[in-house]
Amino acid sequence: MGLLKTLFKLSFLLVVGTVVAGVVFLVKRPADESSISFDEWPSVPPNPVE
């Protein structure tokens, strides 16, 4: 019974460590450089006045 408790604790710690590492990875990820800049709008034809 003690072996099962130990394995459960180790697996729980592994899951918690994985979650923490995932959050740290997402926070430290650089910003998306392919976002649209407000200085460079894509060329869109103007709407005709009706």
Description:
The chain is mostly helical and 50 residues long. The chain starts with a helix and ends in a 22-residue tail after the last helix. 54% of the residues lie in helices and 0% in strands. The chain is rod-shaped, with a radius of gyration of 25 Å. The model has no long low-confidence stretch (mean pLDDT 82). The protein contains one helix and no strands.
Please specify the SSE layout and strand pairing.
Elements (H helix, E strand, L loop, with lengths): L1 H27 L22
Short structural description:
With 50 residues, the protein is mainly α. Helices cover 54% and strands 0% of the residues.
Q: Helix-strand pattern, N to C? A: H
Termini separation comes to: 80 Å
User: Which descriptor suits the 3D outline?
Assistant: rod-shaped
Strand portion: under 5%
Mean pLDDT: 82
**Largest sheet, described in full?**
none
Assign the structural class, choosing from mainly alpha, mainly beta, alpha/beta, alpha+beta, or little secondary structure: mainly alpha
Mind telling me the C-alpha Rg? 25 Å
Defining traits:
single chain; 50 residues; 1 helix; 0% strand
